[in-house]
Design brief:
Blueprint: H1 8-14, H2 25-35, H3 48-54, H4 59-81, H5 85-123, E1 130-135, E2 138-143, E3 152-156, E4 164-176, H6 178-181, E5 187-188, E6 206-207, E7 212-224, H7 230-240, H8 247-278, H9 283-300, H10 305-322, E8 325-327, H11 330-338, E9 341-344, H12 346-350, E10 356-362, E11 365-369, E12 380-381, H13 391-399, E13 404-407, E14 413-416, H14 419-430, H15 435-441, E15 442-451, E16 456-463, E17 466-473, H16 475-481, E18 482-487, E19 490-492, H17 495-510, E20 514-523, H18 525-530, H19 533-536, E21 540-549, H20 556-565, E22 569-573, H21 578-588, E23 599-600, H22 601-606, H23 609-615, E24 621-623, H24 627-639, E25 644-648, H25 654-659, E26 662-666, H26 672-677, E27 680-682, H27 688-728, H28 745-755, H29 757-762, H30 789-813, H31 818-840, H32 855-870, H33 875-881, H34 888-896, H35 899-912
Parallel strand pairs: 9-22, 9-25, 18-21, 22-24, 23-24, 25-26, 26-27
Antiparallel strand pairs: 1-2, 1-3, 3-7, 4-5, 4-6, 4-7, 8-27, 10-11, 10-21, 11-12, 13-14, 15-16, 16-17, 17-20, 18-19, 20-21
Helix pairs in contact: 3-5, 4-5, 4-9, 5-10, 5-28, 8-9, 8-27, 9-27, 10-11, 10-27, 11-27, 13-14, 27-30, 27-31, 28-31, 30-31, 31-32, 31-34, 31-35
Length: 917
């Protein structure tokens, strides 16, 4: 049997509670030993060395580590066995360069994760809270983590409930549990047992760790601490959810497999072809052929891929941070771009979690109220020209109220009191009616606090020589207590007046507004001071009713529309009531009709996973759900191959955030458990930040795809140029001896590391292509080479590689030296891929994007082009790389002729809409 189902007597007996003395010091030690400390187990952070080593587990990194090892072995063989010092040095340089790229990738990933961890820790509240506990017959204030099961605790307005508590005595106790339930309203507590099994939100004789007392006070016994609390159970649910690789990680993993297979095929093919040509099978020849084949395989791998991926993701993460989105891991930055469902909690995420009066009915007139939240700014509108017709209602709402609005050091408005009372206080300030000002001339002589039996609160106010009772409460109860309704400054005691008033209340309810009625009556001094509650609250005159709602965030509606345009579904998953959830969802545009289906937690409980699987594609609103329900919804959406993001701020959101493909937490109002579970933290708590983050994610993926296309095109050109030389350069031509490679190893390395990679890094700064937020999310299983990227890589790489080899042959036939022929081939490749990068940055053609949009790319291309020219004229680089200076006519040729394949192919694609290139 659950604690909430047990009577007070059973609880006292079970925990051996003495309400006069509490636990003794000895009992405290025993209870702590038996039940543990009041601390949730904290997830142990990975040490720095483990975070650094994580990057080395990526398949592409493993391939590159293999390339480093092969290059080192090749260097050893060339230097020690063949005595080819210069060739061996080239292999050493190649190994060193690849190793540097591996380390750059590792350091970038390490830096981003550590930076995010530090930023997250900076967001955490570092306050140690205390609680009042009865021990050894004395009330004392102790640190919350020292509470034990069986402790008798006392809570009053402003206190946090620091453990799970079964209330034994309450007096008008109201507690906010939105961190668990998602409901903004305070829950009134009572002490009687509850017979049926109910959800957390309906266990009104319990107090839960992390809740806040907003009214009254209570005495209870601690029944659970630490990981055994509802809060702790959620933390346990979080730990049980396994982390999943991001779509980008899966894509790159698949690409790596393809490249490994192709590299292996290339090695075998090259090895067989050269062995057939040489017709020699001795050990030296075998080793030379194997070294050549392996060198060709290494050249076929895009060495800079991991580093560029990390840099592009880092650039994207920094852009998100500038837009108030803190990414905790690099791969999460791209996951947003493939997201197809955003599942959001309502309270505090889609809404402000600030109860607000948006309209009221007073003295027979309707009033509309501008301004949302606790900021006391906004106009009140009505068709009534009498500015004072609503004064009786407003005065009663403000005086029959214990809440206040305070301003902190940052100028923010901080509420003190029950949320609905705060809403009335803010309404009063908008109408320029302040409780403190009223009490300068009036005196509250008696207060009758709210009680669950009466469902009302009243105050007796002395106004000069008169005594007025002001009351507020549930409209149905107030009408029963009233004898009349104030209509157009007349007291109308007809039944029709009451019926019409209740009809107005129902209208408000149909709009998902919470309602509070206000009434008043004049009494004698004797009655004011001595009359019983029942007598004072009988015969009231109803002055009006307030319609209150936790308002949607003003900017969310436009964001949801933009997300719908991007073919992303938005789903509301809340602990609030069905009607409220439906109305808010319709107002925000999540659903198109208030008749749209809503699934409640009770209905979810009765559904099998198979039934829920059928319902999730057509349901956008879930109400009265628990944390476990949220996880079920996420999992069923994922079974439909949907990439899900879950947003939220409360502890109840944390397990679903972890289960989702990407969890999004609120940085300001979010709990620490939620932030720890999230991948993205909204530093401004603004739902619209998600929209910009989705756009950034799509842009990041587009830039990565463009880079991979460009990098692979260059690799195809390199391999083809070298392979054509091995296969078809069978005899000496002029001064170029047979066996001279089209490109030296260091020339290939220069292209991969400098002239190719540096401009590729700049693609990370590219602005998104037009219409990126009008496209459907890509299939997460889609290859990065899908949609004709493979054919574009092969076709353009083929023409570029053939041109490089043709330039080499042309130079040889012109009587140039081997170094001159290789230099011409080298510069043809360099400038060919520099022209190609402008085409690679578009999914369409070179002519569809402004080449000057990305100034960093222009600068990188100029740097790569000039530096590549310089390595042919500076003696040091001539010696290292085997280059030589050319005349100015040749330089012009190698700069502009390589542009022809790119311009011709792009032009044909533009004219004839040819998709394959």
């Amino acid at each position: 049997m659950n604690f909430y189902q047990k009577s007070k007597a059973e609880i006292i007996e079970q925990f051996k509670v003495d309400l006069e003395t509490g636990l003794t010091a000895k009992q405290v030690i025993e209870q702590r030993t038996k039940f543990g400390e009041n601390k949730s187990p904290e997830k142990r952070e990975d040490p720095y060395w483990k975070i650094l080593l994580k990057s080395f587990k990526e398949p592409i990194i493993i391939v590159l580590i293999g390339a480093v090892i092969l290059s080192l072995l090749s260097a050893y063989y060339k230097i020690k066995v063949q005595g080819q010092i210069r060739s061996g040095q080239e292999s050493l340089y190649e190994a060193a360069a690849i190793f540097i790229l591996i380390m750059v990738n590792a350091i970038l990933g390490f830096w981003q994760e550590i930076s995010a961890r530090k930023s997250l820790n900076a967001l955490k509240e570092m306050n140690n809270r205390y609680t009042n506990v009865l021990r050894d017959g004395k009330w004392q204030s102790i640190p919350a983590h020292e509470l034990v099961v069986g402790d008798v605790i006392s809570s009053q307005v402003g206190d946090f409930v620091e453990a799970d508590v079964r209330w034994l005595e309450v007096s008008e106790l109201q507690v906010i549990e939105s961190h668990l339930t998602g409901e903004a309203d305070a829950i009134e507590k009572q002490t009687e047992a509850i017979e049926d099994e109910v959800e957390v939100a309906d266990r009104n004789n319990m107090g839960f760790s992390g809740s806040t007392v907003t009214n009254g006070h209570g005495l209870g016994v601690v029944v659970a601490v630490g990981s055994e609390t509802e809060l702790g159970n959620i933390a346990q649910m979080i730990e049980e959810v396994e982390d999943k690789p991001s779509p980008l990680q899966d894509t790159v993993k698949d690409l790596t497999k393809v490249m490994m297979i192709m590299a292996a095929i290339l090695v075998v093919f090259t090895f067989i072809m050269i062995m057939i040509k040489t017709k020699t099978m001795n050990v030296a020849a075998f080793a030379t052929v194997l070294s050549t084949a392996l060198a060709l395989a290494v050249a076929s791998v895009p060495d800079a891929l991991p580093a560029v991926l990390s840099i592009v993701l880092t650039i994207g993460a920094r852009k998100m941070a500038k837009n108030n989105g803190l990414i905790k891991s690099l791969n999460s930055a791209e996951t947003l771009g493939v997201t197809s469902y955003i599942c959001s909690d309502k309270t505090g995420t889609l809404t402000k979690n600030e109860m607000t009066v948006v309209q009221y009915y007073a003295n027979g007139q309707y009033y509309q109220v501008d301004g949302l939240g606790y900021k006391p700014e906004g106009e009140i509108h009505s068709q009534n020209t009498d500015e004072h017709s609503d004064q009786a209602f407003l005065k009663g709402a403000v005086l029959c109220n214990t809440s206040t609005i305070e301003t902190n050091e940052q100028g923010e408005h901080v509420p003190v009191g029950a949320p609905t009372e705060v809403a009335l206080t803010v309404l009063g300030k908008k109408a320029h009616i302040d409780r403190a000002d009223l009490l300068k001339d009036n005196e509250i002589v008696r207060t009758l606090p709210f009680s669950s039996s009466r469902k009302m609160m009243s105050v007796v106010v002395k106004e000069q020589d008169r005594y007025i009772v002001y009351a507020k409460g549930a409209p149905d109860v107030m009408v029963k207590q009233a004898h009349a309704v104030l209509l157009n400054d007349q007291v109308d005691d007809s039944e029709a007046a009451k019926t019409n008033f209740l009809a107005t209340v129902n209208e408000f309810a149909d709009e998902a507004l919470r309602t509070l009625a206000v009434g008043q009556k004049e009494v004698t001094e004797q009655e004011a001071l001595n009359a019983p509650v029942e007598e004072l609250e009988a015969g009231l005159v109803i002055t009006g009713v307030a319609g209150i709602i936790d308002p949607p965030r003003e900017e969310v509606k436009a964001s949801i529309k933009n997300l719908h345009d991007a073919k992303i579904e938005v789903v509301m998953i809340t602990g609030d009531h069905e009607n409220t959830a439906r109305a808010i969802a319709a107002d925000l545009g999540i659903i198109s009709s208030k008749n749209a289906p809503v699934i409640t937690g009770a209905q979810l409980e009765k559904m099998t996973d198979e039934e829920l699987f059928e319902r999730v594609p057509v349901t956008n609103v879930y109400a009265r759900v628990s944390p476990a329900h949220k996880q079920r919804i996420i999992k069923q959406l994922q079974k439909h191959n949907q990439v899900t993001a879950m947003t939220g701020d409360g502890v109840n959101d944390a397990p679903a955030l972890r289960a989702a493909d990407i969890g999004i937490a609120m940085g300001i109002t979010g709990t620490e458990v939620t932030k720890d579970s999230a991948d993205l933290i909204l530093l401004d708590d603004n739902f619209t930040t998600i929209e910009s983050a989705v756009k950034s994610g799509r842009t990041i993926y587009g830039n990565i795809k463009n880079f991979i296309r460009h990098e692979l095109t260059t690799n195809v050109a390199e391999v083809l140029a070298i392979l054509l030389g091995f296969l078809f350069f069978n005899h000496s031509i002029g001064q170029v001896a047979v066996g001279t490679p089209t490109l030296t190893a260091l020339m290939v390395l220069w292209v991969n590391m400098i002239s190719d990679s540096l401009p590729s890094f700049s693609l990370g700064y590219d602005v998104p292509e037009a219409g990126i937020m009008q496209k459907s999310p890509r299939d997460p299983k889609e290859s990065v080479l899908a949609n004709h990227v493979w054919s574009r890589v092969l076709i353009r790489g083929f023409f570029m590689g053939v041109l490089v080899f043709a330039a080499f042959l042309w130079a040889a036939r012109q009587g140039m030296s081997g170094e001159e022929a290789q230099t011409i081939a080298f510069l043809t490749l360099v400038y060919g891929q520099l022209w190609h990068i402008f085409d690679a940055r578009s999914t369409k053609t070179l002519f569809d994007r402004n080449p000057f949009e990305n100034k960093r790319l222009i600068a990188a291309v100029l740097f790569a082009g000039i530096s590549s020219f310089l390595v042919t004229v500076i003696p040091f680089f001539q010696f290292i790389m085997g280059t030589t200076a050319l005349n100015w006519q040749l330089y012009l040729l190698v700069i502009f002729v390589p542009a022809l394949p790119t311009f011709i192919l792009s032009g044909l694609k533009k004219l004839f809409k040819i998709k394959i290139w």
